[in-house]
Amino acid sequence: FRIAGGSSTLAERLVQAIHAIGPAVPVRRGFALRSLARDGAGFRLGLDHRGRRAERGADRVVLALPLACLRQVHGLDAMGLPPKALACIRERGTGTNAKRMLGFRERFWG
């Protein structure tokens, strides 16, 4: 399937939905999540940003990551996710995509 407007539309709509909760809700982009831990009633995030390590606290976290990236997050097992969700994160494969480049002397399609 294809997403009208491209796949970046998913992230943009997610940000819009989060901002609809309230303008004080920060959305941080350009960070790579390396670790996640419970911190009282919230969370502690270990991040990489432009080659520098950083830690941030958050009351809530939305993990909108590809499975390949999510597998690399340290501490995910301690988040209390259902066993089926953890199994999916650990074991689910990714799709494949193959492209062929062909050259033609003239346009024969409609």
Descriptive overview:
There is one protein chain. This protein is α+β, with helices and mostly antiparallel strands. The protein has three helices and three strands; from the N terminus they run αβββαα. The protein has a three-stranded antiparallel β-sheet with strand order 1-2-3, with no helix packed on it. The longest helix is centred in the first third of the chain and has 14 residues, at 8-21.
Structural classification: alpha+beta
Would you tell me the overall average pLDDT?
Answer: 84
Gyration radius (Cα, Å) is: 19 Å
Q: How would a textbook summarize the main sheet?
A: 3 strands, antiparallel
Binned strand content: 15-25%
Beta-strand segment tally: 3
Distance separating the two termini: 22 Å
- In helices, the fraction of residues equals 10-25%
Outline:
The chain has 110 residues and is an alpha+beta fold. It has three helices and three strands; from the N terminus they run H-E-E-E-H-H.
Name its key features.
110 residues; alpha+beta; 3-stranded antiparallel sheet; 3 strands
